[in-house]
Amino acid sequence: MINRLRKENVVMLMIDVQEKLLPVISGKDDMVNNTVKLLKAAEVLEIPVVYTEQYPKGIGNTINPLLKSLPAAAVRFEKNTFSCCDESGFNEKLTGSGRSLTVVFGIESHICVLSTIMDLLPQGIKAVVAADACGSRNPYNHSLAMEEARACGASVLPAESIIYQMIERSGTQEFRTMLPLFK
Predict the structure, then answer these.
(1) Is the residue at 2 inside a domain?
(2) 13 CB-near residues (< 8 Å, 6+ apart)
(3) What residues form DSSP beta bridges with 156?
(4) How many C-alpha atoms does 95 have within 13 Å on its Cβ side?
(5) Domain harbouring 101, CATH code
(6) C-alpha closest to that of 98 among 10, 13, 165
(7) Is residue 89 part of a domain?
(8) Are 109 and 146 within 8 A, CB to CB?
(9) In this structure, are residues 40 and 32 in contact, taking their beta carbons and an 8 Å threshold?
(10) How far apart, in Å, are the Cα atoms of 101 and each of 98, 119, 144?
């Protein structure tokens, strides 16, 4: 069971939002917009971010708007496996922060995102999926992946719910900084 998100317990994992993958993703503009919000929240709330790139020589790098939105301390991880957890050194990099919960988002929902979630959970790493910051070429595949993630034990929420849970209250500097992104 996943309790309410607290910024001090969270690490964010952005999976493979790359130049040659993104153009074919259904709903990509909303997905990118929600991803920017999550990355801004990570910066404002001082949440560690790990981001992956699947075979960047062939698929390209993380798209520029997201590279510019990444907190300065974000950690890049290059991979060739579909599940991030199958790549040597990844688990240590993700769990090195000592945080108990991973907010997962990226592409493709039904391949790398779902495979990673299915590998995180048995390791005792709780996962929350930002459904509207994930995408697939086919929206039906995205929908099935979110259903399966939930069935496996992950929480599946919109990015806004995730962010507001971590902010915890209105009237704070964090709240005032993030509020314009939701208008």
Answers:
(1) no
(2) 49, 50, 51, 52, 84, 94, 102, 103, 104, 105, 106, 116
(3) 129
(4) 14
(5) 3.40.50.850
(6) 10
(7) yes
(8) yes
(9) no
(10) 9, 14, 23
106 located within any domain: yes
The rounded percent of the chain whose pLDDT value lies above 70 is 99
What is the C-alpha to C-alpha distance for residues 17 and 64, in angstroms, rounded to an integer?
Answer: 10
* 3-state SS assignment for residue 108: coil
Mean pLDDT over 130-149 rounds to 98
Kind plus residue range of the DSSP H or E element containing 107: strand 101-107
Mean pLDDT of 76-84: 96
Q: Where are the alpha helices (DSSP H) in the chain?
A: 28-45, 56-59, 64-69, 90-95, 114-120, 139-152, 159-167, 173-178
Task: Note the pTM of the prediction, 2 decimals.
Answer: 0.95
In a domain, 1, yes or no: no
Rounded Cα distance between 112 and 120, Å, is 12
**Encoded tokens for 182:** 């939701």
Pairing of strands 101-107, 75-79: unpaired
**Looking at the 3D structure of the chain, how many domains does it have?**
1
Residues of the domain holding 118: 7-182
Which residue type, as a one-letter code, is found at position 183? K
Of all helices (H) and strands (E), which one includes residue 131? strand 126-135
